Task: structure prediction
Amino acid sequence: MMTSNAEMRQKLIDLRRTFHRHAETGWTEFWTTAKVAGILKDLGYTVSAGQEVIKTEAVMGRPSDEMMAEYVQRALDQGADPDWIKKMDGYTGAMGVLDTGRKGPVVAFRFDMDAVDVSEGQDGSHRPRNEGFASLNDGAMHSCGHDAHTAMGLGLAEILMENRDKLRGVIKLLFQPAEEGVRGGKAMAEKGLLDDVDYFVGAHIGNGLPSGTIAPGIGGFLCTTKFDLVYTGKASHAGAAPQEGRNALLAAASAALAMAGIAPHSDGATRLNVGVLEAGSGRNVIPSRAVMKVETRGSTAKLNSYVYSRAMEIAGGAAAMYGAEFSVAKMGEAVDASSDSELVDLVAEKAVRIPGIVKAGPLMNLGGSEDVSWMMKAVQRRGGKAVYFGLGSDIAAGHHNEYFDIDEEMLLPGTLLFSELAFALAGSK
Ligand SMILES: [Zn+2]
Ligand SMILES: [Zn+2]
Result:
């Protein structure tokens, strides 16, 4: 029996709520990955997970191994399948492959699975709260809609498996960890999962697009680098021996101010933000340590690297001024990307035939960063085509806000659009 649209609609809502409840932030999606992998396996997919889909050397911004043990335990306590957890070997992310056995293209779909570092709103008028599916995990909430992405990916998996006789080639469904902070995309792309892909499709729900509409292609991705800068000085008595200290706080503060003064570039948009500066240990102690969390962006790789290299010069200059040492750790990175017009046109054409989608267009400018760009580039580099589109959904509050919520009525149209794309690109001739 084929799943009816009404059944699929309900299934998608249930799945989305399940993932919403089990919100896990980047690199800690153990419960989520185990659930996804289990469902894909039951459907008949060839499933790989964890280290099989992640190039560990390309991982950025992953919490320490000691903290990971706690997240693994939390997932197990919440009922995650221990076999999958073991197979993942400390890393999250999964891929399901459907090989039709018939000659044809390789088509990949990407769904990100991570939650945001925010605690879910307590107000009873917030639907996840009042209908009992608010996040179980303090400090983690699906306030970007990746719970919806994951649910749609699994809905797509079911539709494609039920209709595998009508497909040719190979379908790859990628469930990516750690999109927030652009930390996970590169590790999946560099694992080589996309090296044989002819067509690549990614999407995001919300983004200011109302329900019933889609943006058939999103461009204007900013290249970005996220890094932590640590200054190490020397502590001493602020009254008795200030001259013996090396002031890490002042080095960091000087760096923050000077970075804000990096000149803009005439070639295009640049950004720099010092989002966090923590320093010092006590009122009467010369501060020996300061930590800064910084990001740079640029509309091209060259512009981003212009801002980044100026920031590094400033970091070094400030360290020298105060006799402090400094170190830099890269915490995330994304490149620019653009959708291929052939696929943009296909998305627009298929979208308007789906009940629940009334308008396709215009193209959208992201004005932010997304690490789907690593995957798009990996496909395009080899001559494949890629598209990243926006799926409209009215939202209860802005992305990353504690009262964010999506319009669940867009889950079915979104899933049907993904499946229509799969049939258009890899349907039997
Ligand atoms: Zn987000
Ligand atoms: Zn997002």
Observations:
- The chain has a mean pLDDT of 97.
- The chain has two domains: 5-221+335-426, 223-332.
